[in-house]
Design brief:
heterodimer, A: about 90 residues, mainly alpha, 30s Ribosomal Protein S18, 4 helices, about 35% helix, B: 4 strands, about 60% helix, elongated
Chain lengths: ~90, ~200
């Protein structure tokens, strides 16, 4: 293996930040819809980036669906690809 | 081939005229129908601000088409949309893999009824509005005529008093009590007098 550089920059983090439950698993009636940017807005950052699962608390299955929905919404200009402000 | 349910969202220019849009919509409907598909419904989301400019435009007119058909129909539909320069964006998504044709046809019929009902309601509402507007316009015109008369009468009365008032005003200016008594805001006659005075000044 290629040698690792010494002095990893990452300090030790808490191993589990996951107190949250996946909100879609908890409520079976919530649907993920690429056509509804208001619902999807909660899963992107201010800059328009998709929020990672360990922050959003979603389970793997629903995180994938969210990602797909956001990408579709972006294609349809319902959501931005990026929100770069000056 | 199997019939599946799809929905297509597409964007037309926000500023093109209604006839053009209708043509495109009908054309796309036609593609579905001639391919043997069932067009279930069509939604008009209206003009929306886009998250980023598309074809240099900041806004677009969104439509949704919900239909049942084969993959061939989808391909044909997309082919048409690609060709039309007015379709700035489109996205077709499969919504159901197993579709019962009969149920779909039922839905189509139901949606048609809904649309027909909506149009009737819209027409009625529009007719009511038009009638109400006419009535309101008439009232407004009548009121204007009446108030115009009143104003001219007041002006005449004011002009004759104007000279007398000018003298009185110099006295009033030094006497705060009388000023309060004749508060121009609550005394319409004073207002008319003031207006007449202003007119005089303009003329003079």
């Amino acid at each position: 293996m290629i040698g690792r550089k010494e002095g990893r920059k990452t300090t030790k983090r808490r191993l589990y930040v996951r107190k949250k439950v996946c909100r879609f698993c908890a409520d079976a009636t919530l649907q993920i819809n690429y056509k509804d940017p208001r619902q999807l807005r909660y899963f992107i950052t201010e800059r328009g980036k998709i929020i990672p699962r360990r922050i959003s608390g979603n389970c793997a299955k629903h995180q994938r669906k969210i990602t797909l929905a956001v990408k579709r919404a972006r294609h349809l200009a319902l959501m931005p690809y990026t929100n770069m402000e000056i | 081939m199997r019939n599946r349910r799809y929905e297509t969202v597409f964007i037309l220019p926000s500023d093109s005229d209604e006839g053009k849009k209708k043509d495109i919509l009908d054309r796309l409907d036609g593609v579905v129908e001639t391919g043997g598909g069932i067009r279930i419904k069509r939604e008009d989301w209206g003009v929306r601000r886009l998250a980023y400019p598309v074809k240099k435009q900041p806004k677009g007119h969104y439509f949704l088409l919900d239909f049942v058909g084969t993959a061939q129909i989808v391909a044909e539909l997309e082919r048409h949309m690609r060709m039309l320069e007015d379709v700035h964006r489109f996205l077709t998504v499969k919504t159901d893999d197993r579709v019962d044709l009969e149920a779909a046809q039922k839905e189509q019929a139901e949606e048609k009824d809904k649309e027909a009902a909506k149009q009737v309601a819209a027409k009625e509402a529009a007719a009511k509005e038009a009638a109400a507007k006419e009535a309101a316009a008439k009232e407004a015109a009548e009121r204007e005529a009446a108030s115009a008369q009143a104003a001219s009468e007041a002006e005449e009365a004011a002009l004759s008093e104007a000279s007398a008032v000018e003298e009185a005003e110099t006295e009033e200016a030094s006497d705060p009590e009388t000023e309060e008594a004749s508060d121009p805001e609550t005394d319409p006659q004073e207002e008319a007098e003031e207006e007449a005075q202003d007119e005089k000044k303009i003329e003079g």
